[in-house]
Amino acid sequence: MIRALILGGTADASLLAAEIARTRIEAVYSYGGRTRVPADQPLPTRIGGFGGASGLAEYIRRERITHVIDATHPFAAQMSRNAAEACAQTGTPLIALERAPWTRAPNDSWIEVADVNAAVAALPERPTKVFLAIGRQHIAPFAMRPQHAYTLRFVDPPEAPLPFAADVIVSRGPFRLDGELEMLRTRGTAWIVARNSGGVGARAKIDAARVLGLPVIMISRPKLPERLRVESVAEIMQWLGHPTRLGA
Ligand code: 3Y8
Ligand code: NAP
User: Does residue 33 have its Cβ closer than 6 Å to ligand 1?
Assistant: First the structure.
């Protein structure tokens, strides 16, 4: 008897939840509690941290979880590390649903950097207009370059004062090329800072940068623990013993 825990919070996790809800597989969907009103899911849903790897191990035992699917975001490194540790501790099968990173197209002008601090250092000295598409949690280091005119994009309106003057767009995506082109053009954006999330939900700004010939400072993904990893919902369903209809 399968009882699956989906560590969610991404578009791919929502697609997986919809597929699982069509079967008789028992599953729980888990959000980290990062946004005020996360999207509804067609499965029983829990919101908030587990209390580290040990808290997750305890949850797995208490809730009699038999399979864990890490469908979190490639930058949700702490959650992924905790899942690997807790599943090792409890001997619970673990699989990751992880989309491939975006790859630079010939006419993309990317500056690839390892982390946010390197992204700050990659910005020019002279004042310019910068779109920070990296969410709310990691913007503080840009206060070291206050000379730029920043546009930020958050899922929810900021609660605390910002660490530097900036224009904030509140939007949860997924985003479309025409909207991104319009936003970048009207703001005269000259630089984009992005994380290599992969997937389609945030890709439009990368395509818009190519159309407009804008440089993108692209933050590479953090290293994640070794674990079984697939890129499609169909492969997860196969792993759960529920091969989907071909091409479904
Ligand atoms: C809470 C669930 C859907 C899901 C939408 C995808 C696409 C838009 C790309 C930009 C980049 C960013 C950010 C982003 C993307 C999708 C998808 C994806 C990037 C929601 C969601 C949760 C979160 C958490 C949020 C983070 C933030 C990151 C905004 C729901 C909407 C920048 C990542 O305010 C905060 O604290 C927000 C925090 C983690 C990164 C950060 O560090 O600030 N995602 N995003 C999940 C939870 O609580 O467990 O609210 O419904 C999910 C989505 N985010 O329905 O289509 O393919 O997943 N989310 C990044 O750098 O890529 C936006 O603006 O261009
Ligand atoms: P993170 O830094 O890897 O995790 C920090 C802590 O948040 C975890 O240790 C865990 O707390 C809790 N947590 C994270 N995801 C959780 C989940 N799905 N269910 C329960 N607890 C969770 O995570 P993050 O980068 O802040 O991402 C948080 C959520 O937003 C995830 O669901 C992720 O999929 C989604 N998201 C993130 C990004 C991104 O850019 N990081 C983009 C899109 C969506 P405890 O240690 O207490 O268990």
Answer: yes
Q: Which ligand is nearest to the CA of 39?
A: 1
Which regions in the chain score pLDDT beneath 70? Answer: 245-248
Q: Residue 76 C-alpha to ligand 2 middle, in angstroms?
A: 5
Ligand 2 pocket member 31 (CB < 6 A): yes
Say how far apart CA 185 and CA 205 lie, in whole Å.
12
Contact 221 CB / ligand 2 (< 6 Å): no
Query: Contact at 8 Å (CB) between 152 and 187?
Result: no
CA distance 142 to 138: 9
Query: Would you say the CB of residue 34 lies under 6 angstroms from ligand 2?
Result: yes
What is the reported pLDDT for 246?
60
What pLDDT is attached to residue 201?
Answer: 85
The answer to whether 217 touches 116, Cβ cutoff 8 Å, is no
- C-alpha distances in Å from residue 76, one per residue of 30, 70, 202: 13, 10, 16
Q: Which residue's CA is the nearest one to ligand 2's atom 28?
A: 32
Contacts of 4 (CB under 8 A, 6+ apart): 20, 25, 26, 27, 28, 65, 66, 67, 68, 69, 240
The structural domains of the chain, ordered by start, are: 3-99+223-239 (3.40.50.720), 109-219 (3.40.50)
Amino acid 244: pLDDT: 72
Would the pTM of this model clear 0.90, i.e. be above it?
yes
N residues, the chain: 248
Best residue among 43, 72, 152 to mutate for probing ligand 2's pocket (most ligand atoms within 8 Å of CB) is 72
